[in-house]
């Protein structure tokens, strides 16, 4: 199994291999079945996101996204071996079962955190890109359209007298 993940290179393949390992381990291990159910639910919820990340990273030639994909793939490879080793343990070896349960819980938390951080980084990158595009559009519109007349009115009361200040800004083109 681990050789398939290492040879494939794609995160989607690594995730599907992990899903298969979890399904096999659930059938073999009664004591860790509830943790494996939770891990399987986490994998099901993040699969579309991982596939999207994988497709986007193929289009981009960014070294940071490649590093992220390699780290995530390594995390998935380690998880496959962890789940398979857990399934191989006998029921009587309670101490090792509990160690594997703890390790699987830690993996699930790492997986959620890594994917959450990547989503936030991608959202920030998208926001920066949108801001740059909006600024560019605004600059183009300023060149095309005449500047409007701006007026600011400020008023206040002081005792019995009313006071007001009025500012008017006009463009030089008029």
From TrEMBL:
One matching Pfam family, short form? RPW8
Tell me the organism.
Arabidopsis thaliana
Which PROSITE patterns does the entry mention?
A: RPW8 (PS51153)
The RPW8 domain is annotated at 1-153
- This chain belongs to the protein called RPW8 domain-containing protein
């Amino acid at each position: 199994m681990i050789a398939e993940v290492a040879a494939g290179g794609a995160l989607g393949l690594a995730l599907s291999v992990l899903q298969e390992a979890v399904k096999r381990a659930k059938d073999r291990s009664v004591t860790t079945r509830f943790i494996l159910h939770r891990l399987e639910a986490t994998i099901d919820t993040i699969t579309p996101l991982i596939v999207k990340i994988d497709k986007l990273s193929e289009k981009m030639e960014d070294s940071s996204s490649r590093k992220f994909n390699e780290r995530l793939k390594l995390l998935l490879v380690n998880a496959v071996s962890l789940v398979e080793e857990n399934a191989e343990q006998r029921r009587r070896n309670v101490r090792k079962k509990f160690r594997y349960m703890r390790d699987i819980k830690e993996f699930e938390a790492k997986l959620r955190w890594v994917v959450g951080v990547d989503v936030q980084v991608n959202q920030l990158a998208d926001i920066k890109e949108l801001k740059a595009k909006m600024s560019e559009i605004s600059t183009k519109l300023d060149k095309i359209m005449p500047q409007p007349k701006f007026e600011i009115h400020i008023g206040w009361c002081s005792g019995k007298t009313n006071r007001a200040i009025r500012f008017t800004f006009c463009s030089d083109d008029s």
